[in-house]
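Readers outside the structure-tokenisation community will struggle with the description of the input data as it stands. Showing the layout once, in full, would remove most of the difficulty. For illustration, here is how one protein appears when written out as sequence plus structure tokens:
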Amino acid sequence: QGAATTCYVALHPDTKRVSGKYFAGCNEATPTSVARDAELAKRLWAFSEELVENRSK
């Protein structure tokens, strides 16, 4: 059950040309406001870069 949505999107013919969409419960869905927050995404990206940079030293 945990992989149902992933399998659906990967294998169902109706989703063959779908790209860049969010799915939940085997249906296209709207991501939460947090997931759509561009400023938060920038902060997460910068934080991730710091972690990778510090790890490679």
